[in-house]
Amino acid sequence: MTDTAGARGKVDDRPAYVKMSIYGFALDSIAQMPVVILKDAEETNTLPLWLNSSDALYMVAELVSSDASAKSDRKDLLAALLDHLGTEVAEVAIDDMKEGLVTASVSLELGGKMVKLGVRTSEALVLALKHSLPVMVARRLLEDSPLVPDESEGRFTRLDERRFVDFLENLDPADLGKYPM
Fold first, then answer.
1. Torsion angle defined by CA atoms of residues 34, 37, 38 and 42, in that order, rounded to the nearest 10 degrees
2. Edge-to-edge strand order for the sheet containing 113-119?
3. What is the dihedral angle through the alpha carbons of 65, 70, 75, 77, rounded to the nearest 10 degrees?
4. Is residue 10 packed enough to be buried (19+ CB in 10 Å), middle (13-18) or exposed (0-12)?
5. Which phi and psi (to 5°) does residue 6 adopt?
6. Helix (H, G, I), strand (E, B) or coil at 9
7. Beta strand pairing status for 46-50 and 113-119?
8. Where does the chain have alpha helices with state H?
9. Which mean pLDDT values do the consecutive 10-residue runs of the chain (181 residues) have?
10. pTM for this prediction
11. Most buried residue, 1, 66, 142, 159, by CB count within 10 Å?
């Protein structure tokens, strides 16, 4: 795993990255969309990532199935593939945002070389959660991101968590096409 002062940004021409973690989930009451909140260790930088309902459902399904497979001692396809190749996820990154779409990547060390794969944002976030990895976020995304209230303005509450769960529980598959993507 690289650090923000390491190989990223100074040695090569890639932009500087900030190490962040998944802080929580919320529901944007205006857009009626799930939001993943990323924060750095000092909690000075916050990045909200809005998910469409299908990505939110994917994340929930993956995390629930991961929990179930951990109890049954069975591996999911990716875990079995990584095990077979003798590698593991080295880094999860949020690289860019173009026209409102966030691009993410996952890096694997394979045969002594780092292999970077472009993936959906929800896939990258699930891998970060499953493998207890930080999320490396391009610094320019933090500079351009909307502000999220800090500690003095209030935290996400149990009510926010409950609203997110209620949203997912009451989501009708027929509604999946009506939300902005």
1. 180
2. 46-50, 33-40, 17-28, 135-138, 89-98, 101-110, 113-119
3. 30
4. exposed
5. -85, -135
6. helix
7. unpaired
8. 53-72, 77-85, 121-130, 139-144, 158-169
9. 39 69 86 88 87 86 70 68 85 88 90 89 90 91 64 56 73 62 46
10. 0.67
11. 142
Which residues fall within 8 angstroms of residue 124, CB to CB, at 6 or more apart? 92, 93, 94, 104, 105, 106, 135
Map tokens 């795993």 to a residue: 1
Joined together, the tokens standing for residue 155 give 């935290």
Instruction: Give bridge partners of residue 89 from the DSSP assignment.
Output: 108
Q: What pLDDT, on the 0 to 100 scale, is given for residue 69?
A: 57
Residue-level pLDDT at 125 = 93
* C-alpha 91: how far from chain center: 12
Dihedrals phi, psi of 128, to nearest 5 degrees = -60, -40
In angstroms, the CA 139 to CA 105 distance is 15
Tell the residue number behind the tokens 């999860």, with chain if given.
92
